Structure formats: C-alpha cells, structure tokens
Amino acid sequence: MEQKQLVLRTTTEPLISESNSMTSATLGRVMSTLLTTKPKKLLETISHLDPSPKIAPIGVSLEQSLLFLYKYVKDAAEKESSLDQVLVPMIQHSLRFRGSKHGNQVMILLNWLFEDEVNFQSLANDLEAILSLKEDHYISLGWCTLARSLIEFEVTMDKLETRGVRARYDALLKIFCTCTSHLVAIVRDGSTVQGEFELPTRLSVAAADLILSLTEALTRSDSVSNCSDDKQKAAGIGERNRPVMLLPSTSTKKKVNKISKSSESTHMEMKLLLWDQLDHLIVLVERLTAWSKKSRPLHAKALERVHRWLLGTQEKYIHIQTKADRFTNAEEWSITALFLLETLWHVVALGRSQIRTEIYRIIGAVLIWDSDNYAEESPKNKESGRETIKFFLNCLALLLGRLHGMQFETTIEEHGSQLSQAIISQLNCADDEVIDSALCIFKAVIFRTNSSLSKCAADISQINALLPMLLHLLDERDSAAKAVIKLFAEYCSISSDTQCLEEILKRLISGNVSQKSNAVDFISDLIHVSMESDTVLPPTMWQHLSCHLLEFLQDEQMVINTQASKLIPLIDPSFTLPALVCLIYSPLERVHSLASGALVALLKNYKHNPDVICMLLDCLSKPTQNPDICDTAYGEEGQKPDIDRVLKLLPEWSKIVEDWKVMIGPLIDKLFAEPSNAVIVRFLSFISEHLASAADFVFQQIISYTRRQKE
After folding, report:
1. What is the predicted pLDDT for the residue at 225?
2. By the 8 A CB rule, do 516 and 558 touch?
3. Mind listing the pLDDT tens digit for each residue in 551-571?
4. What phi and psi values does residue 544 have, to the nearest 5 degrees?
C-alpha cells in the first residue's frame, strides 16, 4: 500500500482531509511525532520553518507535522471547533514528563502557537473548558501541571526565540483566574485524614501549587506582556530581589492613586485580580495550614496568622462597602490593604529558590526597623511598630517553615546569629503575638529544626551557650519570662540529662516571689509538654520536679502553693504519694488543706488503678519511709499520725469509682497477705457501702483466695 502524502498548496489555504476520522488519525500521528521529538530539534525546526508549499510524507517530515498542527488549530479557531484532540495529548504529556528536562515539547509548541492572537484565544479558552468539563482526575492533574508550566514560563523558556507566551502572558493569567473556583474546590475537598492530621492528595497539591503560582504572578510589579526581552529579564531579577515592604511610601501611594484612575493600567488590573481572589485565598490558606501541621508546624503557625489577617481584611472590606458613606478614608484603606495583600502574598507564594535571599532581607528589615522606629514614644508610632514587627516576624516564619533538610541547616548556619539578634530583642515586647512569633522562630534557630521536636531529630547543643543569657529574663513576671519558660520547657522535654533543669530551678526556687512563680510555671509547662508529646521524661527528672512541687506546696504564697497542688496529681504517684500523705498530717491548716485536695485529685486521676490504693495503704502503715517531710509535718517528735485525716478523704474518691470489681480483687488479696495490718481493715470500713453493693463478688474473691490457699 502506497504511503499517503500530504500536499500543502499554499500557506494560507486550509488543510482539508477526506473525512473527520482521517483528520483525527492524522492529527494523532502529528501530535505523537511532535511530542516525541527532542526539544532541541523541535526548536530548530520551528525557527527555520519555511511556509512555502512542500510535499513530504507526514511520517517523516517534522516540518509538515508542524504546519499541519498550525493549520488545524487555525481552522478550529475560525470554526470555533473543539481543540481537545490537541490539548489533551499535551496535558497527558505534561503529566508524564513532569519535572523532566525532556518534557518541554508542549511548552515549545504552545509558545509558538500563541504568537497568533486567534490561535491563542481558541487554545486558551478550550484549555479553560477542559478543567471544568472533564471529570477526570488524571486529566485534572495534568491540566494543573501544564497550566503551572505556562505561568512559570520565565524559568523554562527564557532562551526561546519565539515569544508567544510572553506576549499573551497577562491575558493568560486572566483566563486562568476564571478557573480558580474549580481549583479551590479541588483543594478544599482533597484531603485524607491520618490520625489527627489532614494530608493532601496528589491532585489537591497540584491545584494548590497552581493557585500559588498564579497568584504570585499577579503580585509582580511589572507587566510581563508589555516588557521587551531585556527589560523583562531585568524586571524578573529585580522582582526576585526586591525587599518586602509593609506599607507603601507616600510617593508610592501617589503613584497608585494615579494608576488607579486609569482603567487601562495593566499593572493595577493585575493587582485587582489578586484582590478579587481574596475568598479563594482564604480557603487555600486554611487548607495549607491543615496540611502543614504534621510536618511543617512553624509554617502552619505562620499560615494561621495569615488566615486571620485575610479574614479580618475581608470583613473590614465588606463593612466599608456596605457603609462607604461613613468612611472618609475608605480609598486610602483600600490602597493600603491592596499593597499589604500583594506584599504578604508575595511571601506566601514565593518560589523556593528565592526564599533564602528573602530571609536575609527581612532580617535586615527587622534590625533596621527595631532600631529606628520601634523606640519612638508616640503611642501611634508604637502601635504601628508592633504591627510592622508582627508582619516581618510572620514573613520569617513563613519562609523558614518551608525549608527542609540541608536548605534549612544551611540557612541557619549562614544567618543564625543575625536571626538570634533580631529575635531576642522582640522577647521584651509587651505584645503577646510578637513574643509568640519570636519564640517560634527562636526555637527553630536554636534547635536547628523547623519540624516537631524529638530527642533524635533536634540539635540541642546551642541551648547551653544561650542559657546564661536567657536565665536573667526569668527574674521578672512579664511576657519575656513567659516566652523563655516555654522555650526551656520544650528543651527539657527532649533533653536526655537534667543539667538545664537543675540550672533553672537552682536560680529560681530560692529567689523572690516572681522567680518562684516562674519556677512553678516552668514545671507546669514541662509537665504539660511531656503529656502531649511522645517523648518520655527520665525518672530522675520526674524526681526533681516532684521534690520541688512538694516544697512549693508548703510555700506561704497562695499563688505558688495553689498551683503546686494542681500539678502534683499529674505526676506518677510513686514520686509524690508518700510525701503527700505526710503533708496531710501537717499542723498548718493551709498545708493540710492543699495536700488533702491534691491527694483526692490524684486518687481520682487513678480511680481504677488498685496499685495506687495499695501504695496509699502502705504509706499509712509505714509513714517513716519519708522521714524528712513526715517529721516536719507531724510537729511534735514521736507523735503518731492520725490516719483518719487521710481515710476520711476516701469517700470523695470512692464516689467516682465505676468498676469496683477491678479494685476488690487486689484489696482482698492485700487483706489476706497482711492480716495484722489494722490500716487495711480501717480502710475497708470507709468503703463498706461500696463493698456491700458488690457483696457477691466480694464473697467470690474470698472463696477463690481460700481455694488457692488449700491447693
């Protein structure tokens, strides 16, 4: 069978096939040929494409394949026919070769086809329609990959001679902006729950990345479409290196006012497109926050603040729109909010390769702002200074939180000292949010990790050098002390020794009221951190904490002893119960009352643990095992303790025991094991009512014990 040949009569005549099926088959071969051709050869052929009539077999001529594709797209555009047969193979190819240097054929072809305005409009509109009309996850994933490649064309196509994408860039962004509703729906519904965390699907990650690339492109200060090649390159470099601005300068505001009056300003039009996406950005940030909590907690923390700011801005904007006549500065607020959104989102969506440079710039901005503006006495200036510092710190947390592995370690190695200098000064701020942000970043710096802390992952060597510098902050009761306490608590929770714990408590326990209060807060934070984490504190550390809490229980300051009484029940009874029983015998009513309350709370925490009750009975039977505390508590030497002071507390515990069968067996065994122990008999009399309600089980246990003895 003779091979069919394709004859191009002129470059302007439409290419007509004998039938639709033959056209589809030919187009399929053309797309296969073009998408499997090496990018370099494809570029060379396009650059030397001769539009004059030629005759060549379609299977061997790359030039004829290009001309066929061009004519097919041109005819479809004029007839308003679907271009799915062109775009779907491109989408599939983009996904198949995602991230590969050998997969640029699609970008090369689209860049060439987009040089014609009619072709561009037809291809772009059909590309938009594919996302919403084709309910196929594979196609949607490839679509996101292709669209993101088009948006980020500066990286992948900077050396191409054709400039189709560059010429239509702004129009392309506008078309993609109409797709954000569908993309946000993919992001919103694209999570899987794993334990207490949400993890994204592959498609939802691709959709989120595309939205970030799209909206980041809208924040660029210069229109890509209106720049020449050289100017565009310079603008790209300038954009990547521009410093973060919180508020526009006066000259900038005047410029914006001037631009906003011109409906033809592409620059302002792009910024307004970003503003129009505010609802979608809120949903996106909410999902990004949920996805980051497991592996990127620092980034998640910063995203939570971004989410709050976006919600607040949206609420204020709606309020101004509904009551515009009451706001004389509505236009000024709108301009400022637009600049803030642009600047903030530039940081949120910043490319990974630019993060380290931006971190360095923000550190410098914090140091300069802190020295020049933050110390001004005007309340208005101080408020503005706090908001500015919040913004800068959140930007730092956003950027540091996105780094992983060697990238993060290298950044800390290069900028760690400057970061520490910028952050430590913020710990003295009166604003809790500033302190919280500073503390999160400071932990990442000194622990050398922006992930969850663990004994095996964190590098905790730097804390020893910083310990003396931070300890003096614990001498006062202020926000700085509160922040450092949290930092020390997290450190001690992952430390394998007690050196830091001993240094902290040594400085605080014998100090003034403020220092003692900070000591109790530190112990409280450490206990709660250990309860919420997977790490286990060593027994020696628990012993230290228990001893100091029992001392604080006897302190004269009500704030200190009350807090200690609430913390003691949270510790393993083996560390606290013997001494706690002795303190109940104290002649000081204050100590007796606090110890009694702590004991009842402890028993309630272990209401179904018979070992704790047996331990209590041993403490009542052998009080001399804690001579130091017990001798002090008894008062007169040689005086026997009144065990009823302890036993009369038990009814309050017994009321909440739900399963007495768990308790009765071990108690009966202990009774028979120590028949001469009057304390056990006395104890059973205090819970006789509950024993009577389970009489059958009591007798069953007695009979069972008797049988075991006979055997």
Report:
1. 53
2. no
3. 999 999 999 999 999 999 999
4. -60, -50
